[in-house]
Amino acid sequence: MNFGFVIDNRKCIGCHACTVACKSEHDVPIGVNRTWVKYVEKGEFPDTRRLFNVMRCNHCADAPCVEICPTEALHTRKDGIVDFDDRRCISCKACTQACPYDSIYINPDSMVAQKCNYCTHRTDVGLEPACVVVCPEHAIISGDMDNPNMEISH
Asked: Which one, 56, 79, 90, 152, has least CB within 10 Å?
């Protein structure tokens, strides 16, 4: 099993439903996000357009945040999810610097590193991550990338 996300940014309408669902699901404080929508402006006036990119942890196969974490608070599960253990984090911020996607933040309330954990409390019982469920355009696809019968594998 190898869980992953495929995000079709061409379908994203910038509604932030994924951001709100994630914040609600994980009680993410104001000012930080596990998932966010980045606006990208293209063209020159009067021919301009706005594109949207959903940003989050990519659960890297060889995650630099996992490699650099001195306490193993960040770790890769057997199913490919890069997860974290709040109790082991010492707030050294090495992971925030190592992440190429700028997807790890220090929670201002608990002072520990946090990031998208693929909604493990949901996926462990067979449910999809909250962001996938709420996306009105089906721009976020999740699943086992090793399973040829899943949409994510196509």
From this structure: 90
- pLDDT of the residue at 148: 92
Dihedral, 40, 42, 48, 49 alpha carbons, nearest 10: -40
Q: Tell me the C-alpha distance between 6 and 9, whole Å.
A: 9
Q: Which of 42, 35, 41 is nearest to 16 (CA)?
A: 35
Neighbours of 130 (CB within 10 A): 21
Count: domains in the chain:
1
Which domain range does residue 91 map to?
A: 3-153
CA distance 108 to 90: 14
Q: What pLDDT is recorded for position 153?
A: 82
Q: What is the pLDDT of residue 154?
A: 77
Extract the residue ranges of the chain whose pLDDT is less than 50. Answer: none
Tell me the C-alpha distance between 51 and 42, whole Å: 7
User: What CATH number did the domain enclosing 53 receive?
Assistant: 3.30.70.20
Q: How far apart are the first and last CA of the chain?
A: 16
